[in-house]
Amino acid sequence: MQVRTRFAPSPTGFLHIGGARTALFSWAYAKRFQGQFVLRIEDTDVARSTPEAVQAILDGMHWLGLDYDEGPFYQMQRMDQYKVVIQNMLAAGTAYLCYCSKEELDALREQQMQQGQKPRYDGRWRPEAGKVLPAPPQDVSPVVRFKNPTAGVVAWDDLVKGRIEISNTELDDVIIARADGTPTYNFCVVVDDWEMNITHVIRGDDHVNNTPRQINMLNALGAKVPEYAHLSMILGDDGQKLSKRHGAVSVMQYDEEGYLPEAVLNYLARLGWSHGDDEVFDMQQFCTWFDLDHITPSAAQFNTEKLNWLNAHYIKTCDIGKLAQDIAKRLAQAGVSDAPPAQLASALQLYRERANNLNQLAQDIHFFFTLPQANAADVEKHITPETLPIVADFAQKLQTIDWTAEAIHAVMNEIVTTHQVKFPKLAMPLRVMLIGIAQSPSIDQVMMILGREASIARINAYLS
Ligand code: GLU
């Protein structure tokens, strides 16, 4: 069997963390079995769907690298196909016309509620052997209803939640086409999953209630019923529903906030799925491991700290060229558009060890490319009548030495020995002069990358 999965977002908003995880799992499952992953845009809710939301979903998937083998298919462009299936079902007797007016249905509901019954369509236009139907009224355009089985159960072995059974008496005859002929949501999903030969439906468990109806319709169409895996919801850090502060935001916001897509993907992969104790793995590895047996049926909880930890890991280990490209973009936003590539790469090598965020990293290395604004408290504390002559002596030597971190370090040692002071008496004022603050990785490395000319100029600015 060729595995075929799909991601079927409704374009009513951006791609958020929950949607991205559904997409990731569907994508990985197809990859795992050398199958196909289909992208389908469910845009039939015309009032709420927007082209911007479609674009936001495509952008989010692109950023995460979730490539699809087929699509995007748009349901609004498939109306003719749905209508053909509706006609076929009417002809086959698995669907029928219902002429109930809104008033009639309201009255029916009212009556059922008064009698303490669950409101449901009573099947008054449902054809049955030996039943005489009323004459169709002239002034009502009919809807089309699916002829749901009246007896037995509809059941499936959910690959996450286990066996689920619903009695058919719980389900009424759902409308599959409105009076104006447009097909309804559940029906489009059924036709698409069928015609797109979807073998595994992986989706949020807010759709569990739709599944029995969809299975009944698939059966009526003679379609093979796919496997279903309903993913539990994702809770926020605080155990509450995801809020704007964590997760219920566009995945693109993670880009803005300084996360690598690798980190977000690795994080999402572990959100409700596990492979032993493995926490850190790339997508290639994930696609060889991913299965539906190790998805937890309980809700997953978002953990920002863990995401940050993974981000730090990927910032440390990712390809330096790729990192440089990303940081160059962030530096440009901060007004530095001409960072020399070799210098940028060296700066990143030195600083990425201590970073867990790309924005922070860009900010940390900004001083290499433009004069820093020195921190006044650090200036006052470290650039003093005591330290200035030490730095001045040191600066004298810089013109002629080899420009390597080792040589710079050797001169620093020599100067502090001559002046009989501890190393920080030289290193700290130097940091403030060169970087603007008193913290940095080893200052000889910083100077080496900053370059002889810039280092001397920045020191001299304080000596003159
Ligand atoms: N369009 C639905 C949604 O965005 C998903 C439907 C499905 O996966 O079957 O929630």
How many helical stretches? Answer: 19
Measured by DSSP, the beta-strand proportion falls in 5-15%
Report the CATH topology name of the largest domain: Rossmann fold
Order of strands across the main sheet: 1-2-3
Q: Describe the oligomeric state of these chains in a short phrase.
A: single chain
Bound molecules: glutamic acid
Going by CATH, the architecture of the largest domain would be 3-Layer(aba) Sandwich
Q: What is the count of β-strands?
A: 12
Distance separating the two termini: 78 Å
Q: Can you tell me the residue ranges where pLDDT is under 50 for at least 5 consecutive residues?
A: none
Mean pLDDT across every amino acid position: 96
Rounded to the nearest angstrom, the radius of gyration is 32 Å
Quick one: overall form?
A: elongated
In total, the number of domains comes to 3
Main pleated-sheet profile: 3 strands, parallel
CATH top level label of the largest domain: Alpha Beta
CATH superfamily of the largest domain, by name, is HUPs
The level of helicity is 40-55%
**Category from helices, strands and their pairing:** mainly alpha
Describe this structure in words.
The termini are far apart. The protein is 46% helix and 11% strand. The protein contains 19 helices and twelve strands. It has three domains: 1-74 and 153-168 and 181-303, Rossmann fold; 81-152 and 169-177, Alpha-Beta Complex (Glutamyl-tRNA Synthetase, domain 3), CATH 3.90.800.10; 376-463, Arc Repressor Mutant, subunit A. It has helices spanning 17-32, 51-64, 79-92, 102-114, 185-195, 211-220, 251-256, 261-269, 283-289, 304-317, 320-333, 341-351, 358-365, 376-382, 388-398, 405-419, 424-435, 443-450, 452-463; strands at residues 4-7, 36-41, 70-74, 95-98, 143-146, 153-158, 162-167, 175-177, 200-204, 227-231, 234-235, 300-301. It is elongated, with a radius of gyration of 32 Å. It is mainly alpha-helical and 464 residues long. Bound molecules: glutamic acid. Glutamic acid is lined by residues 8-10, 42, 189, 203, 207.
